[in-house]
Amino acid sequence: MKIKDMPKEGRPRERFLKQGPEALSDAELFAIFLRIGTPGENAIDMSNRLIAEYGLDKLFECSLKELQKIKGIGPSKAMQILSMIELMKRHNNSKKPNKHIKSAKDVFDLVYEKLKDEKKEKFITLHLSTNNYVIKEEDISSGILNASIVHPREIFNPAIKNYANKIILVHNHPSGDPTPSEEDLTITNKLIDAGELLGIAVLDHVIIGDNKWWSWKERKFL
User: Do 169 and 205 touch, CB atoms closer than 8 A?
Assistant: First the structure.
C-alpha cells in the first residue's frame, strides 16, 4: 500500500505534525527522511525491512558503496543516509565544550566516537591554547598515512591561523591495534622538528585503536 493510500491519521507526516517526532517509530522517522520507497514497497515498509535486517547502528556504519548493495538503496538514498549521519556527527561535535587536555586519555575520550567506525586511517590535529584547552579540531587527511599526505604545511598552516600555541597529533588504526608503524614514528619526529622551528610545540601523538590508545608522550618519546 502506498503511503498516500493509508488513512490520513496513520501517515508519518500527519502524525509528526499532530503528535511530534517523539511519537513516531524509528521506521516512520526513517521513512520521512527517505521520502519514497521502491516499486511494491512504500517508504515505511522499506524502512522496517532495513532496520530489521541491519539495525540502525550497522546501517549507519556502511559506506556509500556498501549501502548501494542493499536492495532498494540507490545512489540518491545512500547519499541521503550518509548526509543524515554526517549532520548527526557534526551536531554532536558542536555540542562539545572546550576540552581541557591533561592526558592521552582526555584525547581518546574526545575523539574516539568520531574515529571508532572509520574504515580508513584519518589524521586530525587538536589545536590548543596556552592552558591546553582545545581551540579547534582540524581534519587533515583520510587514507593510508604517509609522509606525502601528512606534510608539515598541512599540519601547521591551520594551527598558525587559529593562533594555537601547541598541537596534538591524532590518527586511528582501523585494524584496532594502536601500535605505531615505522612510518608513524618517522612522521611524528618530522612534525616535532617542524613545530620546534615554528614555535608550536607538538605535545603528543595519540593513535586510536579499538577502545584503546597509544601515546607518544606516555611511551617517553617526548
Answer: yes
pLDDT digits (tens, 9 = 90+) for 101-125: 999 999 999 999 989 888 889 999 9
Q: State the fold for domain 3-94.
A: DNA polymerase; domain 1 (1.10.150)
Helices (H) and strands (E) in the chain — how many of each?
Answer: 8, 5
Domain boundaries, the chain: 3-94, 104-215
The tens digit of pLDDT for each residue in 39-62 reads 778 888 888 888 888 887 787 778
Please give the CATH number for the structural domain made up of 104-215.
Answer: 3.40.140.10
Cell of residue 144, nine digits: 593510508
Which helix (H) or strand (E) element contains residue 16?
Answer: helix 12-19
Residue ranges of E strands in 88-220? 122-128, 134-142, 166-172, 201-208, 213-215
Q: What is the pTM of this model?
A: 0.59
Rg over alpha carbons for the chain, rounded to the nearest Å, is 22
Q: Measured between alpha carbons, how far is 215 from 206 in angstroms, rounded to an integer? A: 5
Burial status of residue 220 (CB atoms within 10 A of its CB: 0-12, 13-18, 19 or more): exposed
Q: How far apart are CA 198 and CA 133, in angstroms?
A: 20
5: cell is 493510500
